[in-house]
Fold this sequence. Notes:
Blueprint: H1 2-38, E1 44-51, H2 56-60, E2 64-67, E3 73-88, E4 93-107, E5 113-131, E6 137-156, E7 164-188, E8 191-206, E9 213-214, E10 218-219, E11 225-240
Antiparallel strand pairs: 1-3, 1-11, 2-3, 3-4, 4-5, 5-6, 6-7, 7-8, 8-11, 9-10
Amino acid sequence: MKTLVHKQLWTLLLLQFLIGQEVYGQVIEVDTSSKSTLTAPAVSQYSVGIDVFKNIPFWMQGNKAPIISYDLGTQRNRGIYEITFRKKIDPYYHFVGLLGYTHLMISYPSGTEEANRINGWYLKAGRERATGNRQRTHFGLLGTATFCQYRTDLRYPGPTYGDYTEHRIINNLGVGIEPYFAFDFFPQSRWMLRWVTRLNFQYRLFGEGYTPYYPGLGITNGYNLVTSGGTTLQLHYRFRAR
């Protein structure tokens, strides 16, 4: 009888040991899995860029360029400064925002209007969609808002009492849309070049006068409803998710 009881006790101890080893092994396996999840590689989430092309052709022309469509005016002392922000929404879509500032003077060889001094801010925002297997090609649509201030110098000939001069300040505000195409180059993992080709449509909400140059659009045609287009190159630095 004692021998049977001893056998049963030893059997229970052996089973307890085996069960404990099985549970312990399962706990170690779960911990290993959780560690591998924490070390998963991060992906690029957003980038910040600047325009690196729009001022170069102007500088190459000696800091002046013609506006043929309006009294043979000449652009002088132009500067365009833009910063762009891109944020990934999902695997195919990005949110895009752009803030820009332009200063410029347009002088005229003849006529009543002598010069325009232009200062303007513009804001663009919307989203773009990537296409292709490598997702380097993008099509986007942005909404735009522009503020432009013209300081206009006028001279009226006066042969009897001399010429009469007048200085006007005209504020223009417009809204519009900008469809565009972009292609990305990756010279380095954190740096990206973007070639962007755009088409602009804008409607002037208030202001007056023909505006041969709109900040954010460039040389334009039309009066209240204006259109323009262009192409440029942007340099982006890509940040990674933490």
